[in-house]
Amino acid sequence: MDLLAHLEAYVATADEASFSRAADRLGIAQPLLSRRIKTLEGRFGGPLFDRSRRQVTTTELGVLLLPYARDVLDRAQRLRQAAQSARHARVRAVGVPADCAPAALARALHAGTERGITLGMRELPPAERESGLSDGSLAYALLRVAPERAAFRVPLGLASAPADTREVSRALHLEELRPRRRRTGEPAVPPLPVLVLIEDQVPCFEDRFARAVARAGLPEGRIGPAGPAADALTETLAGRALLLCAESYARRYDARWAPLGDTALHRGYDVSAPPGPRGTPDVPQWLTRLLGTAVGAAGHGDTGGPRAVGDAPARLAARG
């Protein structure tokens, strides 16, 4: 039974006090309206209208149930209006990494508003961004891919505790993190662990990073996954760890940062969407450009304010 259609017949007949006028109001044949009323009466267990008189009158049961019927129809109408508003609003959820620059994300939101699109940024780990596109919970997402086939790249480096002196940074090679020989009488300094954020705990990066670490002669225990980003950053700023991250993320918290010399260890990103009508993802170019800026991609504009001058990687090697 189409409950809403039957309740509409019931309410219209009560309002019009006539089966024929109610049928005209709803744009249906009178026999169909009468059948709907009969069906409701059978469901409710009693007559809703007194048909013994020339003018149709509502029975005691009909009067009692009428406010509830109106409420159901009102709620259904509000539901339809809400669904229509949601369709017209064009809300789009965007899955982004946790270390995006907030100001750049704000520019993307503003650009969407200018185009009549309401964007909602959702910070998610790489696997959840990919699954969000599959299950339809995300309209767009920054996906991790191998840098050589990515739309844009984000250079990675090692962040360490701030220092008072500033030196021009140069590319850091993992070999420089090998423990240096101690001079006679010099106390042993344990090497700092290198923490890897969840953003880089993806197969397309972990495999090649593990090979690079092995070639550099670093022990496996030296490299480890970071827990929550805030905890990893705290350990780094306290001088108890080195953090593998993008430059914009390190500069945001005034940490020293030295880029890795191996460009194969860059992050690679594509902006993707569920397949469109033609079977391919349809991502606006303006959104791709702004998300590239937000994630700190090389050549995608200012991502973190004025470029700070970092401490020399030699210091990282010495501390490590």
TrEMBL record:
Stored PROSITE patterns: HTH_LYSR
UniProt cross-references to Pfam families, sorted A to Z: HTH_1 (PF00126)
Domain HTH lysR-type: 1-59
Annotated segments matching region Disordered: 297-320
SUPFAM superfamilies: Winged helix' DNA-binding domain
Keywords: DNA-binding, Transcription, Transcription regulation
GO CC annotation: protein-DNA complex
Gene3D superfamilies: Winged helix-like DNA-binding domain superfamily/Winged helix DNA-binding domain (1.10.10.10)
The keyword Transcription belongs to this UniProt entry's keyword annotation: yes
One MF term in the entry's GO annotations: DNA binding
Superkingdom of source: Bacteria
Family: Belongs to the LysR transcriptional regulatory family.
Protein name (record): LysR family transcriptional regulator
